[in-house]
């Protein structure tokens, strides 16, 4: 009766190449938890070689050397999983920025025009001041110009009230001549009230004989 058997007594290694790439996607509702996707590649270059002996027995036994080679072994793997990292603090939401405060309105700008005693005609200096106010009102996008006339305390209250209005109108007319629309001008007369320099009755005070131009 014939029989045979093989014994592997030597193997030869081979070079192998391995590559791994992966991605992790944090799961926002659970701090520290991520979904993972991983790709693995393995290739045994030039295969693996094995050497051994083959024994065959019939009427007698013979032993012959044998060798075997396994071809390239390429393997691709895709792994999907979950990963949890302990001790990860929940993300802190950035503070809500405070609403920006509306810019404060620009302060009103005031110009003073002075008059001679018992007069409402404009002096050369007065016309210069009015022209400056007219120019500033156009560059600063003013919506309202208050023109308020005043007198000193020399004269009766009734007379001074009329004189203060005439002074205010004279200034308003010059503003309009300098390009200010009439609709933007508001005229007021206050007579001998609201004195710039407090005095008693019957006092000719130059600082009180004035018109105030206020740009709003």
Cα-to-Cα separation, first versus last residue: 125 Å
**Strand count:** 10
Order of helices and strands: EEEEEEEHEHEE
Question: How much beta, percentage-wise?
Answer: 35-45%
Quaternary structure of the protein: single chain
- CATH class wording of the largest domain: Alpha Beta
Low-pLDDT parts are none
How many distinct helices? 2
Helix proportion range = 10-25%
Structural class: alpha+beta
What is the architecture of the largest domain at the second tier of CATH? 2-Layer Sandwich
Q: How many domains would you count in the coordinates?
A: 2
Query: What is the molecular shape?
Result: rod-shaped
Strand numbers in spatial order across the main sheet? 7-10-8-9
CATH homologous superfamily placement of the largest domain? OmpA-like domain
Rg measurement, Å:
52 Å
State the CATH topology of the largest domain. Answer: 60s Ribosomal Protein L30, Chain: A
Q: How would a textbook summarize the main sheet?
A: 4 strands, mixed
